[in-house]
Design brief:
The chain has 128 residues and is an alpha+beta fold. It has two helices and six strands. Strands 1-2-3-6-4-5 form a six-stranded mixed sheet, with helices on one face. Strand 4, helix 2 and strand 5 form a beta-alpha-beta unit. It is globular, with a radius of gyration of 14 Å.
């Protein structure tokens, strides 16, 4: 028996890359990096804002499949290709996350072919 359960939305295709969209361990749900992808898992190149909104929509979709919302997120890690996009990042971030904000790490200059990616750790208030 694995010490975790995969969290896989019904509408998300699997098999392209060897990872789960998210895994649940006790009350924790760890969401893999979400980028600007369409429902088939293909990268959708866009403006920084477009990629960030699409990435966050993917995160919301995966959290919902675990019966969670962004309000259940305790920590996020964001990856921003160009540090010049950080002011826009902070504006968009506030559209999705409320106070008290999750703990956050933001790395810049570490992406190739993407402008933005995000992963998250959420907490279940009750264990399913």
């Amino acid at each position: 028996m694995k010490p975790f359960e995969p969290v896989v939305p019904e509408s998300l295709p699997l098999g392209k890359l060897p990872f789960s969209p998210a895994v649940a361990v006790d009350q924790f749900v760890f969401v893999s990096g979400q980028a600007s992808t369409n429902p088939e898992g293909e990268i959708v190149a866009d403006t920084f804002a477009g990629e960030m909104h699409r990435s966050l929509a993917n995160l919301v979709h995966i959290l919902a499949s675990a019966e969670l919302t962004l309000d259940d997120v305790a920590q996020i890690r964001s990856y921003v290709a160009d540090a010049a996009d950080l002011p826009e990042y902070n504006v968009i971030y506030r559209e999705y996350f409320n106070e008290p904000f999750p703990a956050r790490t933001t790395l810049t200059g570490c992406l190739v072919g993407l402008k933005f990616e995000i992963d998250a750790t959420a907490i279940r208030r009750t264990i399913a």
